[in-house]
Amino acid sequence: MSELRLMWRNTRMIVLCAISAALYAAVLVPFKAVPLIPGVTEFRPANAIPIVCSFLFGPAGAWGSAIGNMIGDFFGGVSPGDLFGFFANLFYGFIPYKVWNLIGDGSSPVPHSRASAIKFVIACLAASVVCADFVGWGDNALGFRPFSMLGNIVILNNMLAALALSPFILRAVYPRVQRGRMLYRDVMPEIATAPVAQRTTGFVLLIG
Fold first, then answer.
1. What is the rounded CA–CA span in Å between residue 181 and residue 160?
2. At what angle do helices 82-103 and 196-207 cross, to 10 degrees?
3. CA–CA distance, 42 with 52 (Å, rounded to integer)
4. DSSP letter string over 122-135?
5. In DSSP terms, which residues pair with 35 in a beta bridge?
6. Residue 68 pLDDT class (50, 70, 90 cuts)
7. Is 9 exposed, middle or buried (0-12, 13-18, 19+ CB in 10 A)?
8. What 3-state DSSP class applies to 35?
């Protein structure tokens, strides 16, 4: 997770973070008028954006997800639960590319076969579950809503957007970003890859 800190030393990563946040907020805000749970979550096709930006921009996409969600919250009413939403979205944008680094075998995250599609679903599901855990636990701890209800709604909401929209967006933009050498690995090559054993242990703990 050191890249979440180190990316702030890289000007281009900061710009990519700003782009990710702006995109996420721009799609979030119009759908604030379609709440699923008033004051907590709404119909969010924008949830495809953090998945896409995670695969493209890595840690910049993660911070962009958190900041973009925070901007969107200002348009839907601020509450103490928004703090948990910030960290939930940080990890929603952080986990997809980290999981893909372990199970993707160095290939493009654009689903192109049954095996790659299954791996894509695993990465999105892991991110959605962790996001739901943060939001659900936080609101439950604050006494707002029960964890079981909110957690399941957040997972479903995230997965619908992630699976219905993000593969098509990635198919359109990933090759172009790759050719422009603007993927996070190109912009920030100093990001160190942990040993496979360490990454596998982390993945097991994540899904355990």
1. 30
2. 130
3. 20
4. HHHHHHHHHHHHHH
5. 42
6. very high
7. exposed
8. strand
Distance CA 93, CA 124 (A): 10
**Whether pLDDT at 43 is above 90:** no
H or E stretch at 36 = strand 35-37
**Stated length of the chain:** 208
Q: Which of 94, 103, 9, 10 is nearest to 55 (CA)?
A: 94
Q: Which of 29-33, 95-99, 135-139 has the lowest mean pLDDT?
A: 29-33
How crowded is residue 200: how many other Cβ atoms within 10 Å of its Cβ?
13
Residue type (1 letter), 27: V
Tokens 């709440």, residue located: 35
The answer on pLDDT for 42 being more than 70 is no
Q: What is the mean pLDDT of residues 164-183?
A: 95
Q: Are 104 and 66 in contact (CB under 8 A)?
A: no
Q: Work out the percent of the chain whose per-residue pLDDT is above 90.
A: 54
54's tokens: 């995670």
Residue 168 token pair: 């098509």
CB atoms within 10 A of CB 194: 14
| Residue 203: partners with Cβ closer than 8 Å, 6 or more residues away | 99, 102, 103, 126
